[in-house]
Amino acid sequence: xxxxxxxxxxxxxxxxxxxxxxxxxxxxxxxxxxxxxxxxxxxxxxxxxxxxxxxxxxxxxxxxxxxxxxxxxxxxxxxxxxxxxxxxxxxxxxxxxxxxxxxxxxxxxxxxxxxxxxxxxxxxxxxxxxxxxxxxxxxxxxxxxxxxxxxxxxxxxxxxxxxxxxxxxxxxxxxxxxxxxxxxxxxxxxxxxxxxxxxxxxxxxxxxxxxxxxxxxxxxxxxxxxxxxxxxxxxxxxxxxxxxxxxxxxxxxxxxxxxxxxxxxxxxxxxxxxxxxxxxxxxxxxxxxxxxxxxxxxxxxxxxxxxxxxxxxxxxxxxxxxxxxxxxxxxxxxxxxxxxxxxxxxxxxxxxxxxxxxxxxxxx
Length: 364
Prior knowledge:
The chain is an alpha+beta fold. It has helices at about 1-20, 150-155, 180-185, 215-220, 265-280, 300-315, 345-360; strands at about 30, 35, 40-45, 50-55, 60-65, 75-80, 85-90, 95-100, 110-115, 125-130, 130-135, 145-150, 190-195, 240-245, 285-290, 325. The strands form three sheets. Strands 1, 4, 6, 7, 9 and 11 form a six-stranded antiparallel β-sheet that branches. The radius of gyration is 21 Å and the shape is globular.
């Protein structure tokens, strides 16, 4: 077994070297929160971050590795020639090889690899391919960034591989079919997802910002953590629209065991205002859209809407930026794992939100 592993590793290094030697500067496209490494390797970090390439021939292998400080598996979704072909699981440990094969006769094929799991699940290293690469280019599109929590991550949305009552939390992620990526594909926009499960604006699902970082504290870190050893995010994306969907966890009651204070609207609004000010420093031309949550209902929804109105009002006299917009998702009874929206629910959210964002993108 040991000799077999060594042989596989040597084979991988040979193949990887070959793929790098034939590579040109325009043979890979990267999107989302990614860390570009040496020799065209890239760490896929955020939800639905991706690497794409064109290749000739009907098959190739891709090399992926689940990378983090604690060992576990990850998932990516594959899209071949524009068709979703499913999720693959990347087991913990060494770099693994995955075969890609097309039965469609085409001169040039396109493969897109999307990270299904979120930033806090650890990175997915794209370590090379045996593909005979050809050049790839992208069309200039309008851009949307989606900032949020587990809903925006597409967490607990997909039990197709592992049932909801089995496996781990990340077994049920499908970032490719989260509402942000789904609606962006529908309206022809590029997107970036900056989201973390359980995170909030001033407190998290089960933490009063004592042991865990909130979104304003991690957003400027590429890996969405407070780890100073990780690089800062470069803000090169420069979205036309920044969509913020944070509040579900601020309003939550936690697990009923850990300390949970009453919701503090003043602190929520204050943090929200300061967060938007920080966003403007990096994206001065962006249109900000703030949203409610389909999972916050009843009296809490009324308080939530009041908070959003106060956030918007705080910038009403600011003529240097576009007027902040509010979007309200309709209440839903989610059908996914752990009372989260499933893939179908995510599509419902995308269908609700897409016309609103499309209209904003088309406004001059």
